[in-house]
Amino acid sequence: MATDSPSPTLDTLHGAIETAIRARFPDFATVEFYREASTEGLTTPACLLALTRCDRSREGNDGSGLLQAVLRFEARIVVAAGSTAGALQLRNAAIALATWLHQLGRFHGASSGAIDVIAALPEDTATAQPGLRSWVVEWSLPVALGDNAWDDEGGLVPQASYSFAPEIGRAHVTRYQPLPERTP
Length: 184
Known about the structure:
By secondary structure, this protein is of the alpha+beta class. Helices cover 19% and strands 29% of the residues. It is built from two helices and seven strands. The strands form two sheets. Strands 1-2-3-5-4 form a five-stranded mixed sheet, covered by helices on one side. The chain is elongated. Residues 1-6 have low confidence and may be disordered.
């Protein structure tokens, strides 16, 4: 089991998601990551958030050593089954969240690619908690995770240089040629 601390990228992203949803949807009494949906102590309507998957992206390897990943999130919109918020209001809240995510594009203050809304659908009755009604909104975000291999190079490059593939990278530094001083 890994004991490393969580990625600062993920911490920042989680905070940005919570903050943005709270600001846009003040009627949600609870907006929280990794909270179990149960009738005990849950103030509804609620928006329960979770990062449910991290897949390696097949695109965008920029040579930095960062893991290009696609994170998949879900927001479970929950109301008490006996609440005055009917089935239509629950669906409206889920669709409003999905639409807003699509239109938002990115979460302010977090490094990621564009939000891609996947679906908004009712929770499967087999997995739903008794006494609660819920819909799930799913979306994905491309991100770069880890440490940039070039961060320890000291910042600005004093002399730009080049080489041609396949003779690139640290193993081939001696083959790099300096760029002329006045290259545009």
